[in-house]
Amino acid sequence: MTLPFLVILPLFGAFSMPIVSLLGKKLKEYWAVIISGATFAVAAKVFYTVWRNNEILLYTLGSDNPIGRGVNFPIRIVWEVDLFGALLALTITFVGFLAIVYSLGYMKHDTGLEKYYTLVLVLELGMLGIVITGDIFNFYVFLEIMSIASYALVAFRNDTWEGIEAGIKYMFVGSLASSFILLGIALLYGQYGTLTMSYLAIKIAENPTLVAKVALAFLIGGLLFKSGAVPVHMWLADAHPAAPSSISAMLDAHPAAPSSISAMLSGLVIKAGGVYAIARIIFSIFNPGLHTYLRTFNAPAINMDVIGWVIVFFACLTLLVGNAMAVVQTDMKRLFAFSSVGQIGYILLGIGIGVLAYGTRAGELALAGAIYHIVNHALIKALLFLVAGVVIHEAGTKNLNELSGLAKRMPLTTFFFIIGAAAIIGLPPLNGFASKWIIYESSAMYNPILAAIAVVGTVFSLAAYTKVLFTFLGKESERVRGSKEPEKSMLLPMLILVVAIIVMGLFPWQISDKIMIPAAKMLEQLNGEYILALLKFIGGA
Amino acid sequence: MGSDMGLIVKTMARATIPLIGIFGAYVISHGHLTPGGGFQGGATIAGAGILFLIAFGINEAKEKINKSLYSALEGLGGLVFLAAGMLGLSVAFFYNTLWHNGPIFNGEPGTLLSAGYLPIMNLAVGLKVYTGLVSAVFAMALFRRWRK
């Protein structure tokens, strides 16, 4: 069984980092690379297993059986991995590995690097835990691990005022959002007396009380914050510019964090802790199909259409405001951060339509598009933040007004940027096209107005990225005269991401049919597969 | 900067620090039998460390507290916890194989050498909490830049 190693390996790496860093100066960096590389291999194995068997993997901690002796309900923590979770685990470890390799060169001039690598591994651990867990309190613990590691990483460069400011802002509002989520979990536990997600789903369907609705509202509210949806997106726009670029790829507290951190924030944290968790809670705990079924018999049930419309409302707001705000930015990482907000809007739109049109072709397509876009945006935004990190590293500024004409000094980086920008707008030979197309198509099938709003968002996005293009092309400015291509350890991760983007762009419909549609089907669980994976241990199903 | 505290405080600290330390060690090692455990006991011992820092001052503490050692011990605490969780990996992660199969920590319930991996995990968590809290407070005490 390889699944527990998804958590064991980063935990081992993080705990052994203080000891390893005493043994040699360069050793800690190679140690982080080895550990994250091994985690990537484990995630690939888990993904392959789930994909080949096409069934949900259930792992019990502490025993071989989740059911307690003498009782017929689950008493242990279970990890339930469906194709969606496995796919996200693969994406997280892939981008995390590349961000760590990139950090070798990018973070060279910073101090306290053993703490940096410990925190990055802990951040990766938290996200992996979120995507594999089937226990709602376990989910909360991993969410906090992820959040606290990202607060610390956003404020990692604590000699800069913007790092500290972004870190404090992110930490204050982030802790509030986490406490909403904890309150929602406490309400569910008080009402139903269980914390296992699939068993909770049964209990809620048996007796859908007002408490369950209030808890759902708290959970969705807290998680919309974590994903950077529009009324509560401001932490993201501040944090990314401050974070080291490799983390922005994971998180989205972009402008303040080191670029490596920005890459992780934007690419991964807002997806694992935000949209993934929203989708998991809506489809696995409060299943729309289950409650619609109950309503046809006039049994008490939760009206999931309301949740669907709430998500669609925030999605439309997010993709309009996020992309429009990106157009007016003059700070490169801030622009990318707002663009991340806008792309989260597309993912939320896909999830929202997946709830509203549950059980139809449009709903399934919308979910598949959302899942596809999560993966694509993780790769593209990681690439873009790593490019931003190179520009900051070489030219010493991220102000778009001071930069122009980098193309001659850095032809490779310019090429990488153009690929990334074209992919995020959705030009056909690249991977962003297919996922956006599926989201447009499904929203047009459900309601043409939503599709029109989505297209308007993309127009803004096009304008924003055309603006950045002038940073690279155009007349050479004073500022960029001394800049040159970065070292190999920074170029290589970007090259790998570009290759991944192009290769995924060449087989869009094959990937969609073979991976994304099955993942959407497993998430939708039309026949309650997520619940049955647990129930088969009771033997009553 | 020397110590601000007077003779009475220092003498009392000399007397109470060992007592606090012993009580914390008791709470940790009886975590599986009485209320308390790794976190509570570790925080208690860290209280002794903070009393030392306040009573004897930062200069005295600088000589006694080795940053690398504390950092390494904190990592070690985590590693021991993880290793205890992995002992029964052939059945499942966190399977309490010491309790079910021995050879040690499988005594009569209620005795000190019972409860399988729990005493080991309590010790590991206690070590991690103590070193972590003391390092954090010590780092903040060293951060003395009230003005430029």
Supply the key terms.
heterodimer, A: 541 residues, mainly alpha, two-stranded antiparallel sheet, 3 strands, 2% strand, globular, B: 148 residues, Cation:proton antiporter (chain A), CPA3_Na-H_Antiporter_D (chain A), transmembrane helix (chain A), ND/Mrp_TM (chain A), Proton_antipo_N (chain A)
Summarize the structure in words.
The complex is a heterodimer of chains A (541) and B (148). With 541 residues, chain A is mostly helical. Chain A is 74% helix and 2% strand. Chain A has one domain (4-244, 254-539). Chain A contains 21 helices and three strands. In chain A, helix 1 packs antiparallel against helix 2 (27-53) and helix 8 (210-227) runs antiparallel to helix 11. The two termini of chain A are 25 Å apart. The relative contact order of chain A is 0.10. The model of chain A is unreliable at 249-254 (pLDDT under 50). Chain B is built from five helices and no strands. Chain B has one domain (7-142). Chain B is an all-alpha fold and 148 residues long. Helix content of chain B is 68%, strand content 0%. The longest helix of chain B has 27 residues, at 38-64. Classes of the chains: A mainly alpha (541), B mainly alpha (148). Chains A and B meet through helix 1 of A and helix 3 of B.
Fold blueprint:
The complex is a heterodimer of chains A (541) and B (148).
Chain A lengths: L4 H19 L3 H27 L3 E4 L17 E4 L1 H24 L6 H20 L3 H19 L6 H32 L4 H10 L3 H18 L6 H9 L2 H4 L10 E3 L1 H23 L2 H9 L7 H24 L4 H25 L4 H35 L15 H15 L5 H16 L1 H25 L15 H19 L1 H17 L4 H10 L3
Antiparallel strand pairs in A: 1-2
Chain B lengths: L6 H23 L8 H27 L2 H20 L10 H5 L16 H25 L6
Helix pairs in contact in B: 1-2, 2-5, 3-5
Membrane topology (chain A): Multi-pass membrane protein
InterPro entries (chain A): CPA3_Na-H_Antiporter_D, ND/Mrp_TM, NiFe-hyd_3_EhaH_prd, Proton_antipo_N
Protein name (chain A): Cation:proton antiporter
